[in-house]
């Protein structure tokens, strides 16, 4: 590896840790400050933080790899994500920002659920926290896998050492700086990703003679590669589009809506966030598509399609620029890992330690527990990532579906339906999560095909969770007058803040 490349990466690591130290010195040492930044995020930081934490390593590895393997038909995932993200800003963001503050300053998603339904049993908090810890540990491991692959293919280091370097840097700045460090580093990382996903496909296209030349080469390899439908069935296209359903239930994304400065800033954040997302996701798709022609023309052997972005950075750019581009992959990976670590840490701290172990714990003690939780979850994620054959996109898709089905219908209905009950909310989480797990791991097959290979598990999970919430709420005792009053207060404040 060139010295210039190593130097560029060293600058990136130093900058991330430096931001963590800055955030540590400027963040209130309270749980709200550490976990939610005091609800002071501006629209620009909110938008890029949500985008960067959303896209993760799959943006620069998983999605280009899928495009390389199947061609334009993979773009349906991107279409679904763009639609889902936009609707999330419109439907969820304003109400969640107001309601979580009105509901006695709820600072985690399980905390919001408990206060929204005045759950005295705390069962709703426990179940939702378990879902977060289980699925986020799996999700975090996908990012660590991406880091291991990067260091192995680019630096010649062992896969295992790559896992520890990736997780280690993230743990340092997340542990010391909390939510503000995560959000600020996400903003910088989002900028790096944006530049890289414009630069790489443009330079690669120019190197190969333009899009028409790339299209001809891809068509000569397999005509299905340039077909938007390809070999996909209608059900497969629905599965790809259904990725957009996952946005409504992703804690590491919607927590940004809880932390934004005001409802009025959400429109600006939406414009910035959607513009960023459109450019970067098109860049990722083009990277994979151009990679088809590049590998064919150079007659190289590409053992792992998810490393096509790395191949371009190594062969088409100056070593210093290559270091910047590799930093973009790390930025995508780290931005998501840090957000997931913090959300999981928040849940372990607020929803387990404070709720059940030590209710009178001081603010300083809770922040310490939060930092220890960051470290513990990271170590478990590293252990899971030791399976070097794990697909980044597959790990992400499983966790994405789990959150989308368990929390998506619940989040939306809790913000719009006053009649929704505690029993309905609990059944929605359980049914959604179990459906996804059964769909993925059940030995049931149809004509020899597994359930998840027929249709993406988020589709049945989301539908059944929604039905469970509605049916159980209809047949259970309605919410208490105080819950309805809280809902009315939320709607009144939402109108005033707009």
TrEMBL record:
Query: Mind listing the UniProt keywords for this protein, alphabetically?
Result: Amino-acid transport, Cell inner membrane, Cell membrane, Ion transport, Membrane, Sodium, Sodium transport, Symport, Transmembrane, Transmembrane helix, Transport
Q: Which domain of life is it from?
A: Bacteria
Name of one Pfam family that matches? SSF
Annotated TM spans = 6-24, 75-92, 123-141, 161-180, 187-205, 225-248, 276-296, 308-333, 366-386, 398-417, 424-442, 454-472
Cell location: Cell inner membrane; Cell membrane
Topology of the protein relative to the lipid bilayer? Multi-pass membrane protein
Recorded catalytic reaction(s): these are: L-proline(in) + Na(+)(in) = L-proline(out) + Na(+)(out)
Please state which protein family the record places this protein in.
Belongs to the sodium:solute symporter (SSF) (TC 2.A.21) family.
The protein's job, in short, is: Catalyzes the sodium-dependent uptake of extracellular L-proline.
Name assigned to this protein: Sodium/proline symporter
Lineage of producing organism? Bacteria, Pseudomonadati, Pseudomonadota, Gammaproteobacteria, Chromatiales
């Amino acid at each position: 590896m060139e010295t210039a490349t190593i130097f560029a990466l060293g600058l990136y690591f130093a900058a991330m840790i430096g931001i963590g130290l800055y955030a540590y010195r400027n963040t209130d040492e309270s749980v709200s400050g550490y976990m939610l930044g005091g609800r002071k995020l501006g629209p620009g930081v909110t938008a890029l933080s949500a985008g960067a934490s959303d896209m993760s390593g799959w943006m620069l590895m998983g999605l280009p790899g899928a495009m390389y393997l199947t061609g334009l038909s993979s773009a349906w995932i991107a279409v679904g994500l763009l639609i889902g993200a936009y609707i999330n800003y419109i439907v969820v963001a304003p109400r969640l920002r107001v309601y979580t503050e009105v509901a006695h300053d709820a600072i985690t998603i399980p905390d919001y659920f408990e206060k929204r339904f005045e759950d005295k049993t705390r069962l709703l908090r426990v179940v939702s926290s378990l879902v977060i810890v289980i699925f986020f540990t799996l999700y975090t491991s996908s990012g660590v896998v991406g880091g291991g692959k990067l260091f192995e293919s680019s630096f010649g280091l062992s896969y295992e050492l790559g896992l520890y370097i990736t997780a280690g840097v993230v743990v340092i700045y997340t542990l010391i700086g909390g939510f503000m460090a995560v959000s600020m580093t996400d903003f910088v990382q989002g900028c790096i990703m944006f530049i890289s996903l414009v630069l790489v496909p443009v330079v690669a296209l120019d190197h190969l003679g333009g899009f028409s030349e790339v299209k001809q080469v891809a068509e000569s390899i397999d005509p299905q590669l340039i077909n938007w439908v390809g070999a996909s069935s209608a059900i497969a296209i629905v599965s790809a589009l259904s990725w957009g359903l996952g946005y409504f239930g992703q804690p590491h994304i919607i927590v940004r809506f809880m932390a934004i400065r005001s409802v009025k800033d959400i429109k600006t954040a939406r414009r910035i966030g959607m513009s960023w997302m459109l450019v970067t996701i098109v860049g990722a798709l083009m990277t994979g598509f151009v990679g088809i022609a590049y590998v064919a023309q150079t007659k190289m052997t590409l053992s792992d399609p998810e490393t096509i972005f790395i191949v371009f950075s190594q062969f088409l750019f100056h070593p210093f620029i290559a270091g910047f581009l590799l930093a973009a992959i790390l930025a995508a990976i780290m931005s998501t890992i840090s957000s997931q670590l913090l959300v999981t840490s928040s849940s372990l701290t607020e929803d387990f330690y404070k709720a059940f172990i030590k209710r009178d714990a001081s603010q300083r003690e809770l922040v310490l527990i939060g930092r220890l939780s960051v470290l513990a979850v990271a170590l478990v994620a590293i252990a899971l990532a030791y399976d070097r054959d794990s697909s980044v996109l597959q790990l992400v898709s499983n966790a994405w579906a789990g959150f989308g089905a368990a929390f998506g219908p619940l989040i939306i209905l809790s913000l719009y339906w006053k009649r929704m009950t505690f029993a309905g909310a609990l059944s929605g989480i359980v049914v959604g999560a179990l459906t996804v797990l059964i769909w993925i791991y059940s030995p049931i097959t149809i004509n020899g095909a597994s359930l998840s290979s027929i249709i993406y598990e988020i589709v049945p999970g989301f539908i059944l969770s929604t039905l469970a919430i509605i049916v159980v709420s209809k047949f259970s005792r309605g919410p208490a007058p105080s819950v309805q009053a809280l809902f009315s207060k939320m709607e009144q404040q939402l109108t005033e803040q707009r």
